[in-house]
Design brief:
- The chain contains twelve helices and ten strands.
- It has 280 residues and is of the alpha/beta class.
- It has a single domain, classed as Rossmann fold.
- It has an eight-stranded mixed beta sheet with strand order 1-2-4-3-5-6-9-10, sandwiched between helices. A two-stranded antiparallel ribbon has the order 7-8.
- Helix 3 crosses helix 9.
- The longest helix has 15 residues.
């Protein structure tokens, strides 16, 4: 198994937690999704050569970086990622982003172009239509469903939290990697356990992702080598996929649909993770 360690990267307003797998001079910066953590990249990291250094931060407001304050947004996350590369002594890296992380990756390439060798966008990054709903909370719930609901929920114990994830239709295939991902997200005291992800961060990032100028501008100015990996199925493990029509994306970059994967298992399933690792 690829060696794994966790480190803290000092920022001006606190510390960012970063998971690091492997070693060597070939760096991959891996950026997770809107309610996720660096643990989403575990299966991918374990499928990369030992001489590849996979660097996966917990974005501010998530995981063990949850205490870092706002403002949030794609530009703020991109600048935090550049600081992570500085801390690891990496002049540049291949940058992979999943879901919201794809948007962060695009903005990183736009704001810090010399730090990015090439981009791998994993079911995220290309523009998405504004979801239905009158408030950011309603729009977020329309897109990610149970993942949004859990941010305000409280759980009696660890098993209750696992049961909540077991019921998620996209996680029909439970595995040790999924369990580690779920367990890492849990914080608080027994009887009042909750997700580490900040509801404020998730809401603000959702607004910025859909309506902010940073991601839209980065997409318009895209100039790096890039490949898009598309999950066949969507957030709830069924058709349609998050990106229903890949044709507009294929007009700008190579697109590969990972058959049988959904928005989550494209990273947290063995077939999906192998496909991402192969592309990296």
């Amino acid at each position: 198994m690829t060696a794994y360690r966790r480190m803290s990267v000092p920022l001006t307003d606190g510390e960012l937690t970063v998971g690091v797998w492997g070693s060597g001079s070939r760096a991959v910066l891996a950026v997770h999704g809107i309610t996720s953590s660096h643990q989403a990249w575990r299966l991918v990291a374990e499928r990369l050569p030992e001489d590849t250094l996979l660097i996966a931060p917990d974005l501010r407001g998530r995981g063990d970086s949850a205490a870092l304050p706002g403002p949030y947004g794609m530009a703020r996350h991109a600048d935090d990622c550049a600081a992570v590369l500085d801390a690891l002594g990496c002049a540049d890296a291949v940058v992979a982003g999943h879901s919201m992380g794809g948007f962060v990756a695009l903005v990183l390439a736009d704001r810090h172009p010399q730090r990015v060798q090439r981009l791998i966008l994993v079911d995220g990054g290309p523009p998405l239509p504004l979801p239905p709903g009158e408030t950011p909370e309603e729009q977020l719930a329309a897109v990610i469903g149970p993942a949004a609901a859990r941010l305000t929920m409280r759980f009696h114990d660890r098993e209750a939290y696992r049961d909540h994830w077991h019921a998620h239709p996209a996680f029909a295939d439970w595995s040790p990697a999924v369990e580690a991902y779920v367990d890492y997200d849990l914080t608080g005291e027994p009887g009042e356990l909750r997700s580490k992800a900040s509801a404020d961060a998730v809401r603000d990032d959702s607004v910025d992702l859909y309506t902010g100028g940073a991601a839209a501008g980065a997409w318009a100015r895209l100039r790096h080598e890039v490949q898009f990996l598309r999950a066949e199925f969507g957030m709830l493990g069924a058709l349609p996929g998050l990106y229903q029509d890949p044709a507009p994306i294929a007009a700008r970059m190579p697109v590969r649909t990972v058959d049988g994967s959904n928005h989550y298992t494209i990273l947290l399933g063995t077939h999906g993770a192998a496909s991402v690792a192969e592309t990296l």
